[in-house]
């Protein structure tokens, strides 16, 4: 980022929440679930949100995806104010900002072949050439480590980890600039979690996408995040470099949260890359 270039995402004093009917004649009002959130995400950066259940992590993710109304404050993407886009959010933003959610089986239509599920967003965003689409589908399968033959299967013919790889392929096939990963590996068993986390990190190196990574598991967060934001009761109580948060937390709530979670090995970007390389070699040797 040059001095003049804005961050990819900038959230300022954001208050957002859920619409509620305010009475027969009252229209709707917003019941805030997050308060005064200030955060930026740089290009190619992974920012993680941690915090207890109900602390507002997913709500912040949904606000960034422009799925929730904003009561006050602002959201900027590449320097453009997108605070009030709501339902009329331009298709271009829907392409640039993708999401991967917890339950891949719920996000894939059981009656659609995998090829159809990945093809749909490509067509929606204007790709019509059959040849070009086929090339993209095959590229996506290679990218997430699935066989091309998986394109001709239905979701229930794949394992949970394979389904999540399809969800990742579908999100990344549009070359997004930001991916909101909301508990993207929580439903998977431990070894599959590790594989998917490593895959996400590898893909980030390749594509340069930024991640907003929402998770309960502090071990995973320490592994993948460049910076961490700690949420409590709808507020961002601490924000900093991952290692600083884990080794020298300032906020009392962060200290309590870390105490309640077993420590994990600290890793920088280079160490993470080396560890992934080792894991791949182990996998190949197995
Ligand atoms: N659809 C909804 N309608 C109204 N309120 C909601 C809705 N979804 C969440 N909330 C409220 O917003 C607050 C924040 O919830 P949110 O889902 O963002 O928390 P979270 O930190 O992501 O929790 P979890 O880790 O359990 O997913 C909670 O008080 C919750 O009750």
UniProtKB/TrEMBL annotation:
What domain of life does the UniProt record list for this protein's source? Bacteria
- Give all residue intervals belonging to the ABC transporter domain: 9-258
User: Does the UniProt entry include the keyword Transport?
Assistant: yes
Cite the entry's keywords alphabetically. Answer: ATP-binding, Nucleotide-binding, Transport
Q: Name one GO biological process term.
A: transmembrane transport
Q: Which Gene3D superfamilies match?
A: P-loop containing nucleotide triphosphate hydrolases (3.40.50.300)
Q: Does the keyword Flavoprotein apply?
A: no
Q: Which PANTHER family match?
A: D,D-DIPEPTIDE TRANSPORT ATP-BINDING PROTEIN DDPF-RELATED, TRANSPORT ATP-BINDING PROTEIN
Regarding protein family, the annotation reads: Belongs to the ABC transporter superfamily.
From the Swiss-Prot or TrEMBL record, give the protein name. Answer: ABC transporter ATP-binding protein
């Amino acid at each position: 980022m040059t001095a003049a270039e804005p961050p990819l995402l900038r959230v300022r004093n954001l208050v957002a929440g859920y619409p509620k009917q305010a009475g027969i004649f009252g229209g709707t009002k917003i019941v805030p679930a997050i308060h005064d959130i200030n955060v930026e995400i740089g290009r190619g950066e992974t920012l993680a949100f941690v915090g207890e259940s109900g602390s507002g992590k997913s709500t912040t993710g949904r606000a960034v995806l422009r799925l929730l109304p904003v009561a006050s404050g602002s959201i900027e993407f590449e320097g453009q104010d997108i605070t009030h886009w709501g339902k009329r959010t331009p298709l271009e933003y829907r392409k640039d900002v993708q999401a991967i959610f917890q339950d891949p089986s719920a996000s894939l239509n059981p009656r659609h072949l995998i090829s159809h599920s990945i093809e749909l967003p490509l067509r929606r965003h204007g790709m019509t050439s059959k040849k070009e689409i086929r090339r993209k589908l095959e590229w996506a399968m290679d990218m997430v480590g699935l066989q091309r033959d998986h394109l001709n299967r239905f979701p229930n013919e794949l394992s949970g980890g394979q389904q999540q790889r399809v969800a990742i392929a579908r999100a990344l096939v549009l070359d997004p600039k930001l991916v909101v990963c909301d508990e993207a590996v929580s439903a998977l068993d431990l070894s599959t979690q590790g594989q998917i986390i490593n895959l996400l990190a590898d893909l980030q190196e390749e594509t340069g996408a930024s991640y907003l990574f929402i998770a309960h598991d502090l071990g995973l967060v320490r592994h993948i995040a460049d910076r961490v934001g700690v949420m409590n009761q709808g507020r961002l109580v601490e924000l900093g470099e991952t290692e600083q948060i884990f080794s020298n937390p300032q906020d009392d709530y962060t200290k309590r949260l870390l105490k309640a979670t077993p420590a994990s090995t600290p890793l920088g970007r280079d160490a993470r890359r080396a560890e992934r390389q080792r894991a791949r070699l182990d996998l190949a040797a197995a």
